[in-house]
Write a structure and sequence with these properties.
alpha/beta, Rossmann fold, seven-stranded parallel beta sheet, 19 strands, binds adenosine-5'-triphosphate, binds magnesium ion
Length: about 700
Amino acid sequence: MTDTRVYEGRSDAQRAAMVKGGARSLTSELNAEQAVAATFGDGPLLIIAGAGTGKTRTLIYRLAHLIEKGVRPERILLLTFTRRAAQEMLARAERLVGGACRGVNGGTFHATAHRLLRRFGAAAGVANDFSIMDQGDAEDLIQLSRAQLGYAESKKRFPRKETLHYVYSRHINTGFAIDDILRDEYSQFVDYHDDFLKIFADYTRRKGERNLVDYDDLLLFWATMLEAAPSIAERIASLYDHVLVDEYQDTNVLQARILRGMCRRHSNITVVGDDAQSIYSFRGASFRNILDFPRQFPGTTIIALEQNYRSTQPILDASNTLISRASERYTKTLWTKRSGGEAPWLVTAQDEQQQTRFVVDRILELHEEGVPLREIAVLFRAGYMSADLEIELTNRKIPFEKWGGLKFLEAAHVKDVLAFLRILENPRDEVSWYRILMLLPGIGDVTARAAIDLMAQMAWDSRAFGQYRVPARARDAHTQLVALLDQLRATPLVDMASVSGDIARVRQLYDGLLREKYDRVEPRLADLDQLQAIAGGYPSREAFLSALALEPPQATQDLAGGSDEERDVLVLSTAHSAKGKEWDAVFLIWAADGWFPMARAINDDEELEEERRLMYVALTRARNHLAVTCPLNSYSTRRSADYAIDQLSRFLDRGVREKMERVVPRMDGSVDREPEPAPSAPIDLRALLRGRFGA
Ligand code: ATP
Ligand code: MG
């Protein structure tokens, strides 16, 4: 790291001198360090700084600056964590320097990989009509390998498909050897090391034969094209003169390799991030990646930002204290000029109902004081934790949208319908064939596999399935399916947009199957209506399927269309999905041990550290109002006991609590803001005994 430069505080005159030259009206909206970063010349630049210090803002201004300086927008690659984040950043840059920004290539690593693979993959042996598998598909394909290789279900304790996929994906994204992963995380399976390898080899072969690409392949192929195919690497790397990356703390070593490859002709790479907010280790990300950046990009200039522009000092005080307990941390304690404001509230409720009532009452109060609903968010550790709140909001007619934890596309019936479209796009898509065949009355596992084998023998010819002779009881279903597929392969209906038209035709067969298969039919049919409506927005099946696999809608609002600004709705979000966002008022609910941190993280030091960073992310989303709530009693079927007495989250230790104001909701809905003596856990005998004889 000898040639790394750290930019530290300089005198105002020095700063002004550094900014001059590039100094324009743009930089007047930045502080000195931000301005240096935004107008930085060529070479690697790392902005490592805490929450709300303007990292994203600086990146937007840097983008605007580059364009103003004459860099062609299409020669800039902007990598963000979600598609929406890229769109928002480009829209903001556009407000600074006009429409030129639209030409910038912005999006996620995976979406960019997809674009490049469609364009350059053919030259690298990946025919460009590949289909993308989402995680569920990948698991299903691994399951086929597992079954085919004879690891039958009955074999005791042989890892499940989810575990197999996890180990595979972890290996690809972190570069850790399989035996190391097994030793560290699945010691009960170390003896199966060779079996893991066999299954992974078969899985890899299957993907190749069927021209399927999983999420990890997208990154892996991109990295490999850059590292092992010099002529293609040259063409890809020469597409861009500048690469900008937001939220770098959540990237992994594979992504770092990609960036090195992209910068083989120049070293114009700017990354911004905060190691204290690294929260995606389950996807193979590591905050060490950001700390390693200067080593991987020699000559890196590091700029640190310490002034927070988002939150009031009392909110920062509590957040700073919480993160000061982290065992490893690079970024420093934040300060702000935003003095005043009240201490964050720590609200202990009797139970979930009281927590819900408190949150809803307080939201309405803030709303009456003039805070728009869209400036208020309720955050939680996991999607299911907002169920009670959602019911109450619906009853009280408060509009909301939910981010993260949206299961729409994972629903079996949605996957069923997509499977039909997928075999049309890629007749070799074995997983989708299997899914469809198993839906049909009279067809079971044996028949389904035999049909797939025959199709494989006939080189997946489109007529192969029609020639398969099914058992008598499945004959009707077979005829119907063959007719449907023929129809779909023929020209599309003229009166319907083609993709939603396809879905309509699939549903002529599928809706009947759905009624047979499921109990609660209406909401499922409504999901399919929605799927059909979304499909209307896509020009082709391929575009639709790729978009769903790569950028699954994260919010109900993504499905409905319309931008944040237009709709005054409350946001409910997982802490993960709230990354990078800010609101005037933030509620964090279920701040109880076992909920946040999640129970499974409690016995693992690294996971516990990540939970702490996640809570730091949640608290630092608030500008002016922050309330953290914890129900003291919970009745939950999610935990083994019928009834549990909750402890406040361990992250809210005494030091953090001292920066907060204890607030106790009264039964009548008002709040008591006198500091409370430590609450002895209240007991409710009836509740304790409830559930004894079933519901
Ligand atoms: P996070 O770590 O949460 O992603 P961040 O470091 O990316 O945060 P931003 O979202 O860019 O921070 O900025 C936080 C808020 O502070 C935004 O509202 C932004 O507009 C504002 N802000 C940042 N810098 C300045 C500045 N120099 N002047 C005025 N406002 C600023
Ligand atoms: Mg940001």
